[in-house]
């Protein structure tokens, strides 16, 4: 926390309806809030607290800098009722949460969607399908664009290379702790699977071309890429250095050919080399929080 951040924002429970189900959330409200709020979307099989209390700490950090935050449980997770939804099918949950956020914080004029892993993808899909003008920013942390082939390709390109450079691997090899035959077959299987990326790349490009022409509905990867291309607001992409999901995301962008880049003031990319997928260690987590906060202040502070 910097000297300019308030120490103790208020935290209030929020209960709201989504398709007849009861959703539970917590809104963090600073003493002098800005007109920009942050809706935190929970990825994977997590609830509003997050791995290692990540979302609790993030909400409090952002609220201490005057940004209201709402974190909540999707249907079927945590304390919310209903059936568990796939990340590509939570538009209604996000819409209901935004309505509850506005009701709880009526001063808000705009909101940023913040998501980790498949929740980052869900944020892009929500905007791509709704064009909601209330959403003016996307903060996407290790976005999920996984297919079987993309995972195999990431393992071949990144995981096995890192293992060969790891002294612990060579110590284990020379002491008989590595089964060479099974390891070789594993690598060969991953390499074969990764070759399917070539066909996937051609398929994705064809789907993109068709989606531009309105000839077919797009899959979630195509929808996500379209959302990243056409979103008119600010985007921050944060990538962990020790995460295959992050590497798959960049590989998929490269395969898409004309995929969007994140090198300008409006579309930024932040790499955190020592971070794992969920920022389980304190230093990378605090670096993530600082990067998000700096981006919010630059892009949205009125």
User: Low-confidence runs (pLDDT<50, min 5 residues)?
Assistant: 208-218
Please give the radius of gyration in angstroms.
20 Å
Strand order, largest beta sheet:
1-2-4-3-5-6-7-8
| Mean pLDDT level | 85
The outline comes out as globular
Q: How would you sum up this structure, described in words?
A:
The chain is of the alpha/beta class. The protein is 46% helix and 19% strand. It has an 8-stranded mixed beta sheet with strand order 1-2-4-3-5-6-7-8, with helices on both faces. The protein starts with 9 loop residues before the first strand and ends with a helix. Mean pLDDT is 85; it is low at 208-218.
Provide keyphrases for this structure.
302 residues, alpha/beta, eight-stranded mixed beta sheet, 9 helices, 8 strands, 19% strand
Please describe the topology of this protein.
Elements: E1 10-18, E2 21-29, E3 36-41, H1 54-64, E4 68-72, H2 91-104, E5 110-116, H3 118-130, E6 135-141, H4 148-164, H5 167-174, H6 180-213, H7 220-230, E7 234-240, H8 244-255, E8 267-272, H9 282-300
Parallel strand pairs: 3-4, 3-5, 5-6, 6-7, 7-8
Antiparallel strand pairs: 1-2, 2-4
